[in-house]
Amino acid sequence: MVAKKDSCSKQSLESLTTQMLRDLPSYVNRASQRSRRLSREKEVFSYIVVAGRPEFEPLPLNPGEYTRDSLKTKSEGVEQVFFTTLERQYVNGKAIQLQEFHWLFLTKAENSWLFVMMFSQIGSYSKNQPPTPPRDSSNGVIAQGIGNWLRDCRADSVRGNSNNPKAKP
Fold first, then answer.
1. What sign results for the dihedral spanned by CA atoms 55, 57, 63, 69?
2. pTM of the predicted model as reported, rounded to 2 decimal places
3. Can you tell me the distance from the alpha carbon of 142 to that of 81, in angstroms, rounded to the nearest whole number?
4. Lateral strand order in the sheet of 46-55
5. DSSP string, the chain
6. Minimal CA–CA distance to 105: which of 116, 90, 91?
7. Which residues of 49-76 are buried (b: 16+ CB within 10 A; e: fewer)?
8. What count of Cα atoms within 13 Å lies in the side-chain half-sphere of residue 80?
């Protein structure tokens, strides 16, 4: 009998994030497809090509600055992850690439990792233009993809998860 390795809930933040970023483009692209309105003829959608470059060094949070979600980010046990995505949009038959920067907040509960909130900035991939100001992207398609991946991870149905005998790396 093969011994089971730790499930997603027992993984370190670094290990969990590495697995999540590997799968994130497919999760986000599916969430984006589900959110499309078939009645609109001209709507621009991004397709995630790749997600990566995770960084785990947390930024100090300014205790004097209050936002409606500041209590969430100050909570003990909330972990910060920074990562980027490369996205492609098609506008008038022309491909445009964008790099997006994400600041993700996760917390580890007793038996799972949970999404807290996320901020994102959009930058141009090929031009030297500054990124947009950070925006709360907690309800966007990237966050939906992360939430769906964490749900599947809790259910041990993530590809490559050692507890799922049907999942293949």
1. positive
2. 0.78
3. 14
4. 46-55, 78-91, 94-108, 113-124, 135-136
5. -PPP---GGGS-HHHHHHHHHHHHHHHHHHHHHHH--TT-SS---EEEEEEEEEE--PPPP-TT---TTHHHHHSTTEEEEEEEEEEEEEETTEEEEEEEEEEEEEEE-SSSEEEEEEEEEEEESSS-PPPPPPEE-TTSHHHHHHHHHHHHHHTT-STT-TT-TT---
6. 116
7. eebeebeeeeeeeeeeeeeeeeeebeee
8. 17
Model pLDDT for residues 51-70, shown as the tens digit of each residue: 998 999 887 765 555 555 54
Q: Contact, 24 vs 149, CB < 8 A?
A: yes
- The alpha carbon of 114 is separated from its chain's Cα centroid by a whole number of angstroms, namely 12
Structure tokens belonging to residue 114: 């949970």
Which comes out higher in pLDDT, residue 139 or 157? Answer: 139
